[in-house]
Design goal:
This protein has 15 helices and 2 strands. With about 300 residues, it is an all-alpha fold.
Length: about 300
C-alpha cells in the first residue's frame, strides 16, 4: 500500500499535532485558567506545523516510534508558539495579527502574553524530560542540549536580538544569513536532528547529511518568508504583510531583489534534496517538506 500524498499526509500531521498538543497543554479549567487559555489560544488551531512535519519525516528515516516523535514535535511546536507570542509583543515586532486572528497580547493582555510564552517554554522542556526519547539516556541528554541551544542566545533568541538591532541598519548578505541561521534555522535544525535521533542510530556521516538538509531548508524557509512578505497580503498570509519592509528591516528581497531571492530559494531546495539522496525512499517525506517550504504561497 502506497503512502498517502503530501497534502493528505500534512493534514494528518496537523490533526495529529492538534490532538497531541491539546493533551500536553494544561486544560483551561485548571488554575490559573486565564494563563492556560492564552497558552492554548496561541498553540492550537493554526499554523502549518512545518517543524512537526520535519520531526516526523526525519523519524521515518530512522524508524522512530510515533510516541517519541510526538513528544519531540509537541515540544518544538510549543517553543515555536512561545517565540511568536514574544515576537508579536509591542516591545519587539509590535504586531496585531497572527495565524489569521488577533495576537496573544491583543486577545488577552501584554502581561498574560509574556507569561504564556514563558510557560510554554518551560512546558516544552518538561515534556522532553518526562518522555523516553531514545534508548540511551546519554543520547536523550544530547537531544535536550541541542534543543536548549536552539532556543537560546546561540539560537532563536540570539537571532531575534540581532533582528531587533538591525532595524534601520544595512546588513551584508552574510550577516543576514547568520541572523536567520539562528532565528529560524536553529529550531528547524533541531526538529530534523532530534526526530532522526528518536530512532535507530545513524553514522556521523549520515547525521551530517541530515544536518546539511536541515540548514538548507531552514534558510529556504526564511528566504520564501521574505518573498511572501513582499508579495502577499494579510488575508493570504494570516499576518501583517509588508511589515519588515515598513520597519526598515533587512530582508533577502531587499538585498537581492525578488528574482534573485527566488533563484536562491531554488538552489537551497536542490541542495537539501541532494543532502538526503542517499537515504532513498526513507527520506521521501523530507523531500516533500522541502518542496513545500520553497513553493508554499503563505
Amino acid at each position: 500500500m502506497s503512502a498517502p500524498d503530501f497534502d493528505a499526509w500534512s493534514r494528518d500531521v496537523a490533526a495529529r499535532m492538534e490532538h497531541v498538543l491539546s493533551e500536553q497543554l494544561p486544560a483551561s479549567r485548571v488554575a490559573p485558567s486565564r494563563l492556560h487559555d492564552a497558552m492554548r489560544y496561541s498553540t492550537l488551531g493554526g499554523g502549518k506545523r512545518v517543524r512537526a512535519m520535519l520531526v516526523i519525516g526525519a523519524g521515518e528515516v530512522t524508524g522512530a516510534e510515533a510516541k517519541r516523535l510526538d513528544a519531540v514535535a509537541g515540544a518544538i511546536e510549543m517553543i515555536h508558539a512561545y517565540s511568536l507570542i514574544h515576537d508579536d509583543l509591542p516591545c519587539m515586532d509590535d504586531d496585531v495579527l497572527r495565524r489569521g486572528k488577533p495576537t496573544c497580547h491583543v486577545e488577552f493582555d501584554e502581561a498574560t502574553a509574556l507569561l504564556a510564552g514563558d510557560a510554554l517554554q518551560s512546558l516544552a522542556f518538561q515534556q522532553l524530560s518526562q518522555a523516553r526519547l531514545a534508548d540511551d539516556p546519554a543520547t536523550q541528554l544530547e537531544m535536550i542540549e541541542l534543543f536548549a541551544s536552539a532556543c537560546g542566545s546561540r539560537g532563536m533568541a540570539g537571532g531575534q536580538a540581532i533582528d531587533l538591532e538591525s532595524v534601520g541598519k544595512g546588513l551584508a548578505l552574510p550577516e543576514l544569513e547568520f541572523m536567520h541561521i539562528l532565528k529560524t534555522g536553529a529550531l528547524i535544525r533541531a526538529s530534523v536532528v532530534m526526530g532522526a535521533r528518536c530512532g535507530e542510530a545513524l553514522s556521523k556521516e549520515a547525521l551530517a547529511h541530515l544536518d546539511r538538509y536541515a540548514k538548507c531548508v531552514g534558510l529556504a524557509f526564511q528566504v520564501v518568508d521574505d518573498i511572501l512578505d513582499e508579495e502577499g497580503d494579510a488575508a493570504s498570509l494570516g499576518k501583517t504583510a509588508g511589515k519588515d519592509r515598513a520597519a526598515g528591516k533587512p530582508t533577502y528581497t531587499s538585498l537581492m531583489g525578488l528574482a534573485e531571492a527566488r533563484r536562491f530559494a531554488g538552489e537551497l531546495l536542490a541542495d537539501s534534496l541532494a543532502a538526503v539522496a542517499g537515504f532513498g525512499e526513507r527520506a521521501e517525506r523530507l523531500r516533500q517538506v522541502a518542496d513545500f517550504i520553497v513553493h508554499r504561497r503563505r
